[in-house]
Amino acid sequence: MATNADLYAAQTQLEDAYLQVLRRAQALSIVRLYEETFYQLDDLPLSEQIARLNQVRALIEDVAAGKISASDLPVPPDQLHAGADLSR
């Protein structure tokens, strides 16, 4: 027979799985932004390359500090290598 402890354990396990997926989704958003940044650098003058790298670094630092969510990052997965605008 199931007990309240069993119910609590199942709820806790569901929450843990949910949080793991959210963390992974944020990590994937960061990876996509990072990769897209380097993909776009080739077409830019050197000064703009440096500015873009600094801009993306600041965005990633803001995510790490909890100032913004990874879901707010400017590169949606369906726009990879399709001229996505990182300057959002």
Q: How far is the N terminus from the C terminus? A: 55 Å
Fraction of helical residues: 55-70%
What is the chain-wise order of helices and strands? HH
Categorize the overall geometry: rod-shaped
Instruction: Write down the overall mean pLDDT.
Output: 81
Structural class: mainly alpha
Specify the oligomeric state.
single chain
Profile the largest sheet. Answer: none
**Tally the helices: what do you get?**
2
Task: Explain what this protein looks like in three dimensions.
The structure is a single chain. The chain is mostly helical and 88 residues long. It has one domain. 65% of the residues lie in helices and 0% in strands. It is built from 2 helices and no strands. Helix 1 runs antiparallel to helix 2 (46-64). The radius of gyration is 19 Å and the shape is rod-shaped. The termini are far apart. Residues 80-84 have low confidence and may be disordered.
Supply database-style keywords.
88 residues; mainly alpha; 2 helices; 0% strand; rod-shaped
Summary of the model, kept short:
The protein is mainly alpha-helical and 88 residues long.
Task: Annotate the secondary structure layout.
Layout: H1 4-41, H2 46-64
Helix pairs in contact: 1-2
